[in-house]
Amino acid sequence: MNVHFVVHEAFESPGAYEAWVRQRGHEASYSRVHAFDALPASVENIDVLVVLGGPQSPATTPEECAHFDAAAECDLIVRAIKANKAVVGVCLGAQLVGEALGAAHGHSPEKEIGNFPITLTAAGKNNAKVAHFGEVLEVGHWHNDMPGLTADAKILAVSEGCPRQIIEYSDLVYGFQCHMEFTADVVERLIGASGEELAAALDRRFVQQPAALRTNNYEDMNLKLFEFLDQLVAQYQRQTKG
Length: 242
Known about the structure:
Helices cover 33% and strands 26% of the residues. The chain starts with a strand and ends with a helix. Strands 2-1-3-4-9-8-7-5-6 form a 9-stranded mixed beta sheet, sandwiched between helices. Strand 7 and strand 8 form a beta hairpin. It has a single domain, classed as Rossmann fold (3-Layer(aba) Sandwich). Helix 2 crosses helix 3. It comes from Pseudomonas koreensis. Pfam families: GATase.
């Protein structure tokens, strides 16, 4: 099982997604676009495509960020979906999945940075891949925007600050606006890269400052994410064999 990561910045690491790959004995490959790695020319050898977050938005142009090409990433996502691969977008990645499917991203009602609860919708409670999250689960956040919705998209979870936290685009394609992959190390990297952003958000009600970010517990949401990924892979394997 090969899991391919699209990594936009050195400080936006795969975190718990990478830990899950190691624990399950899967293979990992990477397009570290911040280092100007090429995106895969073919999706044939990819089983799970994970597109990570970043400070960019789907509207960011190559002139604004030389190593980020939203159109090329959307093309990769479309090719993976058409090939019936499993696809997970995280934060910016979730917004790119929506864009790739024709749904424009939007601005979140609130900026969210830190650990805050998400609540499963009725669709989420009835979804076998996320029902084990429980009705309410504290997860990580670091965003201003949110994914767009296709006609068939199902919102599986919301938060007080954002109405689109987990989206099912199909039974193999998911967008996570939230960051269930956060670990203490990942968050420390983000803190180091985000001093000005955090200082400018002192008055935001859904923004935690470094001291609070460093004391959050990330293990429970990591384990919940692992189970989601196990079920996603099982779905992919059933459809591949079928």
